Amino acid sequence: MTLDGIRTLLRDGGRIDRDQARWLWQHATDAELRELAGMVRRRYHADDACTYLIMRIINYTNVCVAQCDYCAFYRLPGQEGGYVMQQEEVFAKLDELLALGGDLAGFNGGFNPHLPLEYYCDLFRNIRERYAERLEFYALTIAEFMYLADHAKLSFAQAAERFKAAGVRWITGGGSEILTEEFRRRHSKFKYTVAQYFEAQRALVAAGLKTTATMVIGFDETLEERLEHLERTRGFQDETGGLASFLCWTFKPYFTPLGGQLGNIEISTGEYLRHLALSRIYLDNVRHIRTSVLTQNERALEGLAYGADDFDLPIEDEVTQKAGATINLQFDRILDVARGLGFQPQYRHVARAAVGS
Ligand code: SF4
Predict the structure, then answer these.
(1) pTM for the full model?
(2) Structural domains in the chain, sorted by start
């Protein structure tokens, strides 16, 4: 296996296999990974093109029974500090988002056994009625969607139809972390198997809902587990074509049980950028690769040179903030960093165009 061989393969529009991905991770320099990621990025985007949007995550409840050991956000039912947001509180957050120039909200909470399906359907229906096309929202992660469907004793297909009828268009691929059965046994054994995850995502795509792929690195996952996650994601996209984008971010360890065990060490931005490049090369069938400002701050913009083409400017995400992420509302400064690296960021209006994320 040689770098020249892989370069030729990519130049001819080919795709790398798992052995080649492993070899690149172990042997390619940063500059070589950037170059190869740029070759695949160029299949979809001009060299200086990138998009962004301003968004917020609304953490509507922190009550959760999943007990993932990498989470600093949840409270068990009945535990002090647990909360559920009422609709007026959600609307106030959406109004603030619009005032700050944003137009995308993502809903992410916990597996709350006290919230019936009607809580969600009423909320999403009222948001759609109140804000119409002024904003778009991601209704939950797939993991929450699965819990809700099970809790309501509905199939994934039936739950997807209920959500669609309530005005939902998007459910993100969140809750995937690392998609290997072994990783889930180690860290989130109440959070569904990999097979169930894709079964739910397949049902969403079949119902005509839009969805995305996500990945979180920096736990104790092995290289093989990262490669397996990428391979499963690429396979799902080959099968369905339903993934609008791929977003990878890094584990924030602070105040989490797992973080304590691992010494609260975060992986370096350099490692994150290399993984972003490998993802861009491997996921040749996913149009948009997104870099994570939420977990990498301004250095996330370097990801644009490692194959990414899109990023969010978040104004809130309690889940990652609780575990150590910080929010920077100086959007102009962040955009200037992108411009300084030679990119021309354009605002991507999900609400108006609904072109994907
Ligand atoms: S990561 Fe999500 S599912 Fe897991 S414990 Fe935290 S809130 Fe619950």
Answers:
(1) 0.95
(2) 49-353 (3.20.20.70)
